[in-house]
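Suppose a colleague, Dr. K., hands you the sequence of a protein chain of 239 amino acids and asks what its three-dimensional shape might be. Before reaching for any lab equipment, you can write down a predicted structure in C-alpha cell form. Begin with the sequence itself:
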Amino acid sequence: MRVLVTRPEPASARTAAELERRGHEPIRLPLMQAIQQSPALATPPLPGTAAIAVTSAEAMRVLDTLPAEARQPFLSMPLFAVGRATARAAREAGFQDISIADGDGRSLARLLVAKTDQNPGAPILYLTGTPRSPEFETTLADAGRIVDVRACYHMVPTAHDDAEFARKLTPMPEVILAYSSETALRIGEIFEETRTSLNWSEARFLCLSEKIAKALPEEFQPRTLWPMEPREDLLLLLL
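The predicted structure, expressed as C-alpha cells, is then:
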C-alpha cells in the first residue's frame, strides 16, 4: 500500500522505516518543519520548579543544541511527556525521571496536577513551540498552577514546488497520514491548489486524533479515521 508520510523530519524517516517493515510503500513529503529558537532555553528553570512538561520531541532536539553545562539543570528535573514518542526522545536526551501521559495536552496536565499535588504553588516549566493547542495550559490554569512557558521552536510550512507535489501525489497514495492540526490544514491548502490536476477521490486519511481529523477539508471526512488513543502504533493498525 502506498502511504504518504507528512510529518516533519526526522520523525518522517522513522515512520517510513516502520511502514516498510510492515510491507508498505512510504512516500515521504514532510509538510511542516521546526525552526529552532534556542535562546528560549538560555536561562535555567525558575527556582523551585516542580517539573518539566514536553508535548513534542522537537523540544528535546532544541535542548540537545545547548552546551552540556547548560543542559544539566534541565536534565536533573522530573520530566512529563505527552506520549511514548516524546518520552523516548527525552530518554535519548538524557532525562532519567520520566512520566508519560495518554497522548494529549489535557491528559498531560492532569497527570502533572496529580503527581505534583504536594507543592501546587511550584512552577511547571513547559518546553513547547508555536503554534500550539491551548488545552495543556488552560487545564493547568484551571487547577491554579503556574506555568513557565518557553517557546523553543516554531513550526512553519516546508517549501515544495508544484512539480514535487505532482511527483509525490501521482498516482495518489492510497493512505495519507496526518500527525498535527497544522499538517491537516496544510493538506487542505494543497488540495485546493491541486484539486483539478490531482486525483484525491480515492485517498483515505488516517489522523493521530479526532481533533486533527476535523482540521481536514469537509469532503475528506467520510474517508478519515483516527485511533482511540493518539498513538502511532494504534494509528498504523488502521492501515
